[in-house]
Amino acid sequence: MARYIVRRVLQMVLAFFGTTLLVYWLMFAASGDPIAALAGERPLSESTRAALIQEFHLDQPFLVQYAYYMKGLLTLDLGVNTSGREIGELVASAWPWTLRLALLAFVFVVVAGIALGVIAGTRRGGAFDNTTLVLTLVVISIPVFVIGQVLALVGARYDLFPTNVVGDDSLAALIVPALVLGSLSLATTVRLARTSVTENLRADYVRTARAKGLIHRRIVGVHVLRNSLIPVITFLGVELGSLMGGAIVTEKIFNVPGIGFQLYKAISIEDGPTVVTIVSLLVIVYLVMNLIVDVLYGVLDPRIRYE
Amino acid sequence: MGRHSAPEADDAAAAQTGEPLLQVDDLHVEFRTGDGVAHVINGVSFDLRAGETLAVLGESGSGKSVTAQAVMGILDTPPGHVTRGAIRFHGEDMLRMSGTRRRQIRGKRIAMIFQDALSALNPVFTVGWQITETLRKREGMSKKDADERAVELMDLVRIPAARDRLKSFPHQFSGGMRQRVMIAMSLAERPEIIIADEPTTALDVTVQAQIMDLLGDLRRELGTALILITHDMGVVADVADRIAVMYAGRIVEHADVHSLYRNPAHPYTIGLLDSIPRLDDKGKRLRTIPGLPPNLTAIPSGCPFHPRCPFAQDICVTRVPPNMDLGGGRRSECHFADRIVTGELTRPDQEDE
Amino acid sequence: MSEAAIAEAAAEAGANTRSLAADAWRDLRRNPVFWVSAVIIALLVTMAVVPRLFTSTDPHSCRLRDSLLPPSGEHWFGTNLQGCDIYARIVYGSRASLEVGFLSVAFVAVIAVILGMIAGYYGGWSDALIARVTDIVLGIPLLLGAIVILSSIELPSVWPVVLALGLLGWTTATRIVRSSVISAKQQDYVQAARMLGANNRRIMGRHIAPNAMAPVIVILTITLGQFIAVEATLSFLGIGVKGNTITWGKDIAAATARVTTSLGPVLFPSAFLALTVLAFIMLGDAVREAFDPKLR
Lengths: 307, 353, 296
Hints:
- The complex is a heterotrimer of chains A (about 300), B (about 350) and C (about 300).
- Chain A is built from twelve helices and no strands.
- Chain A has helices at about 1-30, 35-40, 45-55, 60-75, 85-120, 125-140, 145-155, 175-200, 205-210, 215-255, 260-270, 270-300.
- Helices cover about 75% and strands about 0% of the residues of chain A.
- Chain B is α/β, with parallel strands linked by helices and about 350 residues long.
- Chain B has 14 helices and twelve strands.
- In chain B, the strands form two sheets. In chain B, strands 6-7-8-3-9-10-12-11 form an eight-stranded mixed beta sheet, sandwiched between helices.
- In chain B, helix 5 (about 125-135) packs across helix 6, helix 6 crosses helix 8 and helix 8 packs parallel to helix 9 (about 205-220).
- Chain C is mostly helical.
- The interface of A and B includes residues 203, 204, 205 and 303 of A.
């Protein structure tokens, strides 16, 4: 088990450096003119230009620039953005919003996703199952921003729920955004849980459990569920990372002042440093979640341990 | 037993134990699928007495496993349906019991061992957890007591270092040890009957012998009745008291093990025995039964075995053979059973080789 | 095995491949989901190639006094804020979506087939290297990565989006190619062809590629739908297809500027977008069902 974790951590560290290097390269090197990438199309004074070169070590070779950037990222010195504001502050004030939104969406995905998936899986071919399959397919096909935008429009027009979270500190205001953010994950989770339960219900160990004289509820609720949840939980763990990344669309639509909203703002004002920093942070969250999931997978599925 | 002639011995045994532990009477099972109705079991009857071992022998698709599942009450419904017959346990028809009552028998008084222990055991729970599950949930034992009992059971089935292995997972055992875990699990609540469905098929030959020895010993030590389901004639000779040979969902021959091996009374049994490789037959060509087991959605008319039977005559195509009592507890469903068993009729192709 | 037997086995395997495809096609033909999605996709492709067949209205000729008209005989879906015909804009907007979808999937297919075949067929260090690179790219969520790439390219065409999706979206398809190649490689007839001395290129081209194709086609079809959704999302965020090109995502974003007045400008392009994505996902599902007998 320990060796497994160590191996995974090493893999993650490798992926972390590779990924951030890629992001950094895409942002600055690939664009040809790093200054343009940083400052967008706005005219720059000579002094700003010099400050930017200084800040990002643009007079140094690419790998050195990257090393400086990583040093800043790892020491939580996130630097300043193009308008001179500390990116660290920006992130610190936005982070709680995204975390709350993502966690709320996550709870919703976990509870509703597993419950609906298990019910559909145990009633395969029934009306509930077929309805679930069609509905989830529809949700998967409609891009999240469409769902969010239409809900926001309808909500605002008929005054059903708050569609503008800025200035509303209550958790209730986040419910609809969380539903929107979680919709795709929910649909995927339901389908995954359903397939997993269906497959496990056909497994030989279910026959053994029946031959032991266990009641049906225990066979499904303990034997089948414990096995079915392995792929579902793996998927869900990765999804928590993606939910934070996916928050950009939801936060823009509902004006949630979180990380995604800041990212959107940075994109629209072409604030390069903020974009790279926020994306890198989200990538880190995503990678860490993947690592946790991998370890969790080893705990959940005893067969994986000695691989 | 030796003093008596066979039929009297039968009566004596019945008198000693009263009624049989398990009586299967005219059992019929159908599988209803999109492709039609498969008649999987077509009137199976047999008795099992306390402490006795009955081997149920047949090719795959002969209905032997389905019979076992019907007795256990774990038939997959749909597609499987018991359409007729009775399965009496201590005289009470289990097919007419409430689900709850049936479940109290299942696993506790009649337990089952499956073929492939790797897939039959739940991969994510420790073997200790699985062995003790019914003890904790049904017998209300504490976890500690149940674990103690599990160690006893694992000792009983000769799993070395039982206490240390309680926390191991099924995949950490070898095939033979896994099957022992399976057996230990079935013994947990001291059942009166164990049904073993091809318990050694998935194992290596040497391990097969060990598991069969274990089953034999356990039966002697614990006095548990055993229904041994297998397609392997070589496996049953040492362990079984009686053998029921199944073909196309019927028991075509039913006899004590010695008579059946020495003097089979059904052409199908003869075919099965001829297909066992023997050391003393070196150089001779192994005989196989020609043709394939019948399609259960369209079972041949008359005697279902007639398309493959070397003895077949016109009557076999038109009339279902009667269940012929040959005395000594022997029965055969062949029109010529009496003449085959006396040696009057021999296999027509016998002289060819 | 004699050479004749090997040749026979190889021929039989080829026949099996063909009959698998034939079986799958027979199955597909009977599946209404396949026909519905195929017809939708065919219509959309026609719309993208020859928009004039569907509308004679110029999507760029907008009159502000026609702003936000309700649906009518003249404007089937009404008009948007700028007074443009929504239906005409949807028809002309289909081109950007489908171009991005097909081009980026073609890009992904090329990367996936090359890398997947190398990794699966040769194994060893090339496999390990490709696996690590895959891990790295998988570490970047598609939308975020695309945002980073696109925020540094200012080219007004679909190509930057194609590049971004292609560069980031090849991982799953590559893994699938790799594992199909590995399982195809272990088939007896491939071993036989190798024993007969067929060279690597021939083995990969003639024996492995046809067998590995089905799962790849399935995943690429579904990916196509996803890419169209991501393109629309990026355009909605203002960094997708830049310039004057009409896209559904941009029109949906533009229509949300005045939220409370009219739902039409948002709903109609959204419905077309969702229908397009749905059609590709359903098509992929139908093909998968046809090729995977286990699911039947």
